[in-house]
Write the C-alpha cells for this entry.
Amino acid sequence: MAPEVHVYHENSRKNGWSLPPHPLQFVAWIVVLYFILIYFTTLVPALISEWQPAAYIINALGCAVHIISHFVAATINPADPAVLKKITDGPTGKFDRKKHPHVIENQYCYLCEVHVGPKSKHCSGCNKCIGGFDHHCKWLNNCVGSRNYRLVNLFCRDLK
C-alpha cells in the first residue's frame, strides 16, 4: 500500500473571519447576543429597584469584556512568527508522506516552508503553523495559540 499524498486546504486562513465561516461561529454570536438581550430586558427589570443599577453596570462591563475579547481573539492571526514574516497569498503545496512522515520535522514545516518554534504545530483547518498551538476552535473559526490564548480564556474557560 503506497503512502498517501495529503492535500490540505489550498490557501491559509488569515483569522477567524476568513472564508469559509463555520456554522458554530454564528451560533456562538447568536447565543451571546440572545442571552444579553434576555438578561437586560427581562431579568434585570425583575430585580428589586435598588439592585437594578448595579446589575446593569456590573453585567454590562462583563458583557463588554466578553464581546471585545471574543471579537479580538477571532481577529488575531495566531500564526507562528516565521509564518507571519513569510507573506504568501498563494496556494500551499501537497504533503507527500513518501518524503516526510510528518508535516513538521526538526522544527521545519514542509507545507509553510519555514523554520518554526518548538511548540508550533501545523493546523490542517487553517493550513498554517500556529505558535504555541492549543487547539482549533470551531466557535471562533480560528486557532488558539500563544498570540490569542489569554483572550480566549477571558470568554470561554473550559470549552475545549
The beta strands are 5-6, 95-96, 104-105, 108-109, 114-115, 121-123, 128-130, 135-137, 142-144.
